Amino acid sequence: MQKNKTMMIGTIPKLPAQYAAWIMPLLLSGLMSATISMFNLWKNLGMIDGFFSKWFSIWLFS
Fold this sequence. Notes:
Layout: E1 7-9, E2 12-13, H1 17-45, H2 51-61
Antiparallel strand pairs: 1-2
């Protein structure tokens, strides 16, 4: 008899609790740095041509 695994979305399994202590902060810090770098670029330069490619390079640098 198979044990039912808890799925998050479709066939993607939920994150095991033992990894949640370091994966969630890693994801949240990445999201926070992406948001802050995007807002900072937009505030300083506005919506320029190639905004998202410029933002992505700035985000990777930060």
